[in-house]
Amino acid sequence: SANDLKQLLFNINHKSYPAYKSARGAYQFPNYILSIDHVQGDPFAAPSRVSIHVTGKTAAFPPSLYDTYEKRIALQDYLLRQFARAIAPYSFRAKGSGKSGLLGVSRCGQEILERTACVFNAANGSLVLNMEIGFPANGRTIAAQELIRILFDFLPGCVEKSLFYHSLNPKTCAAVAALSEDQQAIRQQLKEKHLTAFVADGAILPRETGVSDLPMKHAVPFSSPDTLRVTLDLPNHGPISGMGIPLGVTLIVGGGFHGKSTLLQALEMGVYNHIAGDGREYVITDASAVKLRSEDSRNISNVDISLFIHDLPGKSDTTAFSTADASGSTSQAANVIEGMESGTGLFLIDEDTSATNFMVRDELMQRVVADSEEPITPFISRVRDLYEKLEISSILVAGSSGSYFHVADTVIQMKEYIPHDITERAKAIAAEFPPFTASVRPFALPSFQRHPLPDKVLTGSDRTKVKVMGQESILVNKSLTDLRAVEQLTDSEQLSGLAALLLEAAERAMDGKKTLIQVVDLLEKEMDEKGLSTFLAPGRPGDLARPRRQEIFACLNRCRNLKFR
Ligand code: ADP
Ligand code: MG
């Protein structure tokens, strides 16, 4: 019980730091179980891991707040934010050495993600919250009275205030569930109405600064053009109007600084649900959307990029293309094929970050350099087939090349941050210009028969070392995977999740018999059935967020120690 813990802490007071290890275990407090799961080795090491377990009876959340997957994730997210707020006053370091008295819990950004930091059990309404506590010391001597103060005087109030339904504002809790239901309803109605994205009137798309993800103050609110305006009926919000982007090929044009990239970035993040007050609560994109960009120097292992690249000088086979150092166009080609392999229904492309020669070739260049001498089939020659044959839509920002007018179904012009539907006018003018034509090979579905085979770096040792560098890269043992170009990652905990999944994938792929698709299917099935927490392992980064299927593919495809055959 809690008293045993108190007694134990009294007994080890002033002893040398490792004596804290004896505190490991679970202790019944009046309203919850406190579990000391992992004790740091010294005051300067990563803080100790502690979890709080509340029964369904005590937490007492009405099932209407968690009876769907989406609502449960939104509730977990909300509770985590409330708990973070509750412990914030203590976030100064208690006096002591190293990380003494440091209290930490996952920091949530603007997106609502499934995280292991707070897990709600829908079967019985119980919940677990994981946190970090720097066990206090003076030098290397245990300062137990400080830990007693944290665990017995401070934490119980935080738990009660933030994790029990009766102390939370019921209206706010209901609003969290209602928003989640509405966001889910928009995703559903996108399908029914043959749309690929929805941007509500009044939405605030730009962010405060390059480093702050908060809404820009005094921004021009979004306002849809009449011809693209749709009204959706949401269960809680009621009718909501906004711009519906139809399936097919959509072009976003406009002068520089008129808000094209800002709109596209909002669509990129529309694969996630956003919290109330974000400005993008009702900006919803096909959840499988993949942002495509060029990515110089990435590695590519056995990808069939022949749809876009063929007859490379030096005769490397582009139906099974590998390189440790891709060019702009080959990297973007691989990104398309890998996106298709991940099952995407929508590509998002900004010319700002695309390889020019991958997007289009101008007529003059075509006349000087014959098609037969050009190994690249530009995206413009495939974008219609992608939609008509595979139902993959594309939304492209193209402010400088008019060639795409011919292949677009919808053309949107951004003017001072407001979209205008200029499809008819653009098509009429484009009719006076010859369309881009090139003699290209017939469209053929690439082969996805790729079998990942991990090398020893990933599977060899049983003492795995994992390190996550923000949102940039993951280091698993000595294998570094660069994820900087995977722009739809939005939280470093997703990278922790990817690191864990990479190790699991390596284990499942060891026999070399499964395709990449089969390996990812297995991992996703396991996450669906047992929850993300099954991939938490000792000695690895603490908390994970669940990455989308698309980012799992992106990560496995970029790992230099996973070779594909
Ligand atoms: P483009 O891609 O068309 O060149 P951007 O999307 O990069 O333009 O936007 C240019 C600038 O305008 C950015 O600094 C952005 O923050 C700002 N901006 C974008 N949308 C809005 C808006 N709705 N209200 C106010 N400022 C905006
Ligand atoms: Mg731009």
Automatic annotation (TrEMBL):
Residues 465-564 form the MRB1590-like C-terminal domain. It comes from the Bacteria. Signal peptide: none annotated. InterPro entries: ABC_ATPase_C, ABC_ATPase_put, ABC_N, MRB1590-like_C. Residues 177-434 form the ATPase of the ABC class C-terminal domain. Residues 3-165 form the ATPase of the ABC class N-terminal domain. This is ABC-ATPase domain-containing protein. It comes from Fusicatenibacter saccharivorans. The lineage of its organism: Bacteria, Bacillati, Bacillota, Clostridia, Lachnospirales.
